[in-house]
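ingest -> validate -> predict -> emit
validate: passed (alphabet ok, no gaps, 154 aa)
predict: started
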Amino acid sequence: AQWLDHDIGKLHSEETLDLCTLTADHPVLLVNTASFCGYTPQFKGLEALHQQYKDRGLVVIGFPSNDFFQEADSAEETANVCYVNYGVTFPMTSEIKVKGDAAHPIYRHLGSAGAPSWNFNKYLIGRTGEIIEHFDSRVEPGSAELQAAIERAL
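emit:
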């Protein structure tokens, strides 16, 4: 989808993620994340979704953001929380803005479905780039509601 046509840094890495290639013809779950939030344990559930659905085509991408003042001070610390503490293997980008005028273009587009009001908002995107549904922080990755939406998108 055109609005996903961005290269963005990979968390704590010299590499970049080509989001257009990564997401082409796949249902996608985009999540704004934070390292020190009451919802941070959702990384475990997001990783479980990634493991459960990756072979069926689902792409999970995390976007660390400090817009709600819950992010680590360094990319290294953020990477430790994601990769070491929670065993995340799905793609994580470098830190971005997700709300307001300074929001990354991807999040400006997602705002049409409702801007994130806190960390761990989840946006389910269809294979052709349409926003299927926006789930707020309280919707756990393992919830029946989110899993049913993913099943429909697959």
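Helices lie at 19-23, 42-53, 75-85, 105-110, 144-153.
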